[in-house]
Amino acid sequence: MGEKFDNTQPIYLQILQRLCQQLVRGEIKAGQKLPSIRDMALHMGVNPNTIQRVYNELEQLEIAETRRGLGSYVTENEEQLSRLREDLKRKQIGRFVKDMRESGFSPGEIIEGVDNELKIQESKDAEGV
Amino acid sequence: MSEHIVTFSNVSKKYLNQYALNDISFELASGKITALVGPNGSGKSTILKLTAGLIRPSSGSVTVNGRTACRLIAAEVAFLSEKDVLYPFFTVDETIKFNAGLFVDFDLQKAGEILHFMGLEKNKKVRHLSKGNLGRLKITLALSRRAPLILMDEPLAGLDPLARDAIIKSMISHIDLGQQTVLLSTHEVSEVEPVLDMVISLHNGSIKGIEEVEKIRENYGLSLLDWMKKTIVN
Prior knowledge:
The structure holds 2 protein chains of 2 kinds.
Chain A: H1 11-24, H2 37-44, H3 48-60, E1 64-67, E2 71-74, H4 78-102, H5 107-127
Chain B: E1 4-15, E2 18-29, E3 33-37, H1 44-52, E4 59-64, E5 67-68, E6 77-80, H2 92-102, H3 108-118, H4 131-143, E7 149-153, H5 161-174, E8 181-185, H6 189-192, E9 198-203, E10 206-212, H7 213-220, H8 224-233
Parallel strand pairs in B: 3-8, 3-9, 6-7, 7-8
Antiparallel strand pairs in B: 1-2, 1-4, 4-5, 9-10
Helix pairs in contact in B: 3-4, 3-5, 4-5
């Protein structure tokens, strides 16, 4: 039931990351109302306390705001959202580059590898696979 | 509501000369879902029965909502027993009404909603319910009460995957963690893991670990099942 989670990270973080990705991809839009805590908990198949924590974190990150009695809304502030997009990009690339360097790959190899992988994935996307 | 709804202080429970629980102490914070995990005979059911006030400790004290646990706290505690405690000759609807008569905090409207969600037929006799539907009915009775403390002894045991899924979903939908606290025992550790706040690992009547489930992932990178195995081995 619900979504799948891996065991190496807290569930609240995994949900937070998924929501941020949805925001970055534009699947959740600026100013949009987020599902109620219970609906989101049911959808994810997790404890409502976990979702409460996710919404609190989103608020701390100034990505969402709670309007008393109305629920949680994504910020209207586009700047805030594009900052989130940049953050996410930097973090994921940062982690990947660190891993690759620790595995002994040179900058040239990393760039070439990424370039190749992008071409492979794009051709797959074009084939509709 | 006080911060801790359940407190065990140096509790032991002896049956003849054998310890079911040996000098355990813990507190349960309000508004959380906590699971008791551990092998058969580790003391899970004994803790639940002590909390419900159905049995008394051999030594130590158990308090629930600031009062010593005894039979009188049944009004504040919804207890889902592992045993079959329903009358076979009642229909589903009669069972609901019977329980509504027993407990002042029983919410008939909520019971109706949960029954509908569970897809249980009101006019069916309890004796004709499948094991899965019996499990669904028992959880309906427990969740229909606005009791501050809900105890569930093996709510998923022996049920098919669909029934287990329905029960977990109904817990997410119908427990009000702003007002209610849950303590349950289970062997289906991986299945309930996403809905838990806390876990208590038991072995041979002793507590081997108490931890927030999110911390287990964060600090040890372990699933609940692996953590439980680790605490028992050490």
